[in-house]
Write a structure and sequence with these properties.
Elements: E1 10-11, E2 32-34, E3 37-40, E4 43-46, E5 70-78, E6 82-89, E7 95-102, H1 107-122, E8 131-137, E9 140-146, H2 153-160, H3 165-185, E10 198-200, E11 206-208, H4 213-220, H5 236-239, H6 247-262, H7 278-287, H8 300-309, H9 320-324, H10 327-331, H11 339-345
Helix pairs in contact: 1-4, 3-6, 6-8
This protein binds adenosine-5'-triphosphate and magnesium ion (MG).
GO biological process, one term: response to other organism
Binding site for ATP: 99
GO molecular function, one term: protein serine/threonine kinase activity
């Protein structure tokens, strides 16, 4: 696909850089500072106390991205919190995804988000979507992400309805490696694992995205107590409002895998019209038995895998590392599953992924 084929290009223009401010954190110019962390329209930057600040970006590499360097090609997705666009870097023609989130939050939440963005930018794992740069400008957070040309697992599932076990094992293996990285290298809980936060590409890669920031927004914004702001994949201990840990993500993974296998969200509403509001679903997850894979339709390994994830007591769930050694993941290991072919057979990618900066 050539640059500009898809839609008239929108220019993302940026006002000239503001003076950076050293005040404690939120300033009139929209700059936010907390300790050594500085977030403003020029990016996220770590500054030492003694350093004289300049409006440079913090990427460890020499490549310093600015929003003005991108052409917007097309809107590729909309979530509750914002809009995602396919953008193209003007000088290299490489594609990225630009996520723009409009926020209306106080300083304490902004402080949390700044920390999460810092973690996102420092994440280096082939199973986690790369966050290249983040910007904050008076209520708008813009995040330049690695572009995943197959979209999300939710988009893919809509096309194929169900995913056969061998492909599911190959997908799951990558998600587990990503989760293992987040849990044990970064010490963070994803908190918002769901099919739309697992992205795929034509090379057969599966990567986790949206950890931290969207979960913070969902739990702190006005959406917090609505059906919209609450994930269908939340573990019972989270719903109950108690403490929760890494194993909360494993519950979500189990529900996602079951949904991918059956083509349906694992909990069925008591009446045909769907869930009668958010409390009914939450009540079902907390009080009804955990869902399971029907043993007449799926292999014993798959049924056992789902049961190892979807235990109502988090202590009875296996960790990401333990699950990587589960017989379901091992079963198809020597089959050389071609996920790239499988993903692209459902439809060509919107734009071809070029080498990253
Ligand atoms: P929610 O707002 O409830 O978390 P969501 O995850 O679908 O829902 P977004 O994170 O805004 O919302 O993403 C919207 C859609 O944009 C995704 O479903 C996916 O199709 C697409 N998308 C997001 N990030 C990327 C990316 N890095 N590369 C390609 N497509 C992406
Ligand atoms: Mg998302």
């Amino acid at each position: 696909m050539k640059k500009g084929d898809l839609a008239p290009k929108l220019k993302l223009s940026l006002p000239p850089p503001d003076e950076l401010c050293l005040s404690k954190f939120l300033t009139n110019s929209g700059t936010f500072k907390d300790g050594d962390l500085l977030v403003n329209k020029n990016g996220v930057r770590i500054v030492s106390e003694n350093e004289v600040e300049t409006p440079a970006l913090i990427q460890p590499s020499d490549n310093q991205l600015s929003l003005a360097d991108f052409d917007a090609i097309k809107v590729i997705g909309k979530g509750n919190g914002g809009i995602v666009r396919l953008v193209q870097h003007k000088w290299t023609n490489q594609f990225f995804a630009l996520k723009v989130i409009q926020v209306n939050i106080d300083e304490s939440v902004l402080k949390l988000i700044g920390r999460e963005l810092k973690i996102n930018q420092s994440s280096k794992c082939p199973y986690v979507v790369v966050c290249y740069q983040s910007f904050y400008d008076n209520g708008v957070i813009s995040i330049i992400l690695e572009y995943m040309d197959g979209g999300s697992l939710a988009d893919f599932l809509k096309k194929v309805n169900r995913i056969p076990e061998p492909y599911l094992a190959a997908i799951c293996k990558q998600v587990l490696k990503g989760l293992w990285y987040l849990h044990h290298e970064k010490h963070i809980i994803h908190r918002d694992l769901k099919p739309s936060n697992l992205l795929i590409n034509h090379a057969g890669e599966v990567k986790i995205t949206d950890f931290g920031v969207s979960a913070i927004l969902a739990s702190t914004s006005s959406l917090a107590n609505t059906f919209v702001g609450t994930s269908y994949y939340m573990s019972p201990e989270r719903i109950k409002g108690g403490s929760y840990g890494y194993r909360s993500d494993i519950w979500g993974l189990g529900l996602i895998m079951l949904e991918c296998a059956t083509g349906q969200y694992p909990y069925t509403p008591p009446q045909p019209g769907g869930w009668d509001g958010f409390y009914e679903l939450m009540d079902t997850v907390v009080n009804e038995p955990a869902p399971s894979a029907p043993s007449d339709l799926y292999s014993p390994e798959f049924c056992s895998f789902i049961s190892a994830c979807v235990q109502k007591n988090p202590r009875e769930r296996l960790s990401a590392n333990e699950l990587l050694a589960h017989p379901f993941i091992k079963k198809f290991d020597n089959l050389d599953i071609d996920l790239g072919f499988y993903f692209t057979s459902a439809g060509p990618p919107l734009a071809t992924l070029l080498d990253k900066i």
